[in-house]
């Protein structure tokens, strides 16, 4: 693909009518997967090389040698919301691989009190029902080694399904694309999420809306927009491996997370914002892992109109033996400054260790 064409393919959507975009759309897809990556503050775009690459950088799928699977579960808001992830990957040949994954972020058993009061003004608790608000992402990725040595590319196609009880639902579709390059102990990675933008089309229950549109005079009187477009996001990383003695290895990675909007990130302008992150992983003979990272650098406005800099530390540990890897992370999965930290567990299976 010629450079000019590639530039237009990635950045042309940014020059479209800005009113079509939502600054915060499909945010559940920014939480992340795999406790090992979360323990490193998500600084893995250059080094990811297993089944979880389908999320972090599909180019890394080339690194798998046999069937791999992964599972993760985490609770959010003290158990109110549940976040689940499952993935499967397999090599096609020595130069390429494919993977599939599903993500669900949902709040279940929400009380629907829109019909609590009947037409005569009477309160009837039997009219209360339950509903769920859930977001789903179905992913399919393909990765391949290029003719150039140590250069890999990957593409991830995703279908997004969002459901808010019987009130509204949407379908969305988009692509992610990634590149990895390795030379000796140095690794570099680039991941562009929503590279063509991700388009969501909402269907709203008009009958249900008519029942509640006048419940609070002067509020919630208009239907929301039925379309939203997610802006591209870029994650760029560079990493290096260090040998420490005979059995210890240290992996360090520095990433820059780029969004095309003005935020409270440590580097921000009217057009672009950059949030740096740093992650470390120390392992003993590829058996036991200790991880740490720091990211989510944000300026927070104080009551005296001054700003203070906040950051989010993360910690993790892991154990790998005979194709089974169990990882743990202590992290704020929503990257919200005042939210409680969560204990996140994930497990990865590598079938090659089970072959006779």
Question: Topology, please?
Answer:
Elements: H1 3-11, E1 21-22, H2 35-39, H3 53-56, E2 68-76, E3 81-93, E4 96-112, E5 129-145, E6 151-164, E7 168-183, E8 186-193, E9 198-204, H4 206-212, E10 227-230, E11 233-244, E12 248-259, E13 267-268, E14 273-284, E15 288-301, E16 307-321, E17 324-331, E18 342-350
Parallel strand pairs: 1-10
Antiparallel strand pairs: 2-3, 2-18, 3-4, 4-5, 5-6, 6-7, 7-8, 7-9, 8-11, 9-10, 11-12, 12-14, 13-14, 14-15, 15-16, 16-17, 17-18
Which keywords apply here?
4 helices; globular; mainly beta; 14-stranded antiparallel barrel; disordered N terminus
Written overview of the protein:
With 356 residues, the chain is mainly beta. It contains 4 helices and 18 strands. It has a 14-stranded antiparallel beta barrel. A hairpin with a 5-residue loop joins strand 5 and strand 6. The protein is globular, with a radius of gyration of 22 Å. Mean pLDDT is 84; it is low at 1-19.
């Amino acid at each position: 693909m010629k450079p000019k064409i590639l530039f237009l393919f990635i950045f042309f959507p940014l020059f479209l009518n800005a009113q079509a975009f939502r600054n915060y759309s499909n945010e559940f897809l920014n939480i992340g997967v795999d406790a090992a990556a979360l323990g490193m503050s998500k600084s893995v775009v250059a080094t990811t090389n297993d089944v979880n690459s389908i999320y972090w950088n599909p180019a890394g799928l080339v690194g798998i040698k046999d069937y791999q699977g992964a599972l993760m579960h985490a609770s959010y808001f003290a158990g109110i919301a549940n976040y689940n992830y499952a993935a499967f990957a397999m090599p096609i040949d020595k130069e390429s691989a494919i993977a599939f994954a599903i993500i669900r972020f949902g709040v279940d058993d929400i009380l629907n009190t829109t019909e609590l009061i009947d037409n005569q003004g009477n309160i009837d608790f039997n009219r209360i029902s339950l509903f769920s608000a859930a977001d789903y992402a179905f992913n399919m990725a393909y990765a391949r080694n290029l003719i150039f040595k140590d250069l890999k590319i990957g593409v991830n196609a995703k279908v997004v399904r969002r459901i808010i009880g019987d009130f509204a639902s949407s379908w969305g579709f988009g692509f992610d694309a990634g590149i990895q390059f390795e030379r000796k102990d140095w690794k570099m990675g680039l991941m562009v999420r929503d590279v063509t933008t991700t388009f969501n089309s909402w269907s709203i229950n008009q009958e249900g809306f008519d029942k509640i549109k006048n419940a609070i005079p002067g509020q919630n009187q208009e239907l929301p927009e039925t379309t939203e477009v997610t802006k591209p996001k870029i994650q760029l990383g560079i990493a290096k491996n260090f040998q420490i003695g005979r059995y210890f290895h240290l992996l360090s990675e520095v990433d820059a997370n780029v969004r095309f909007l003005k935020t409270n990130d440590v580097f921000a302008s009217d057009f672009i914002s950059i949030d740096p992150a740093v992650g470390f992983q120390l392992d003993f003979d590829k058996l036991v892992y200790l991880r740490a990272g720091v990211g989510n650098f944000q300026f927070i406005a104080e009551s005296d109109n001054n700003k203070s800099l906040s950051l989010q530390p993360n910690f993790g540990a892991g154990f790998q033996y005979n194709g089974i890897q169990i990882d743990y992370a202590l992290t704020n999965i929503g990257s919200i400054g005042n939210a409680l930290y969560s204990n996140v567990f994930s497990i990865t299976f590598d079938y090659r260790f089970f072959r006779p």
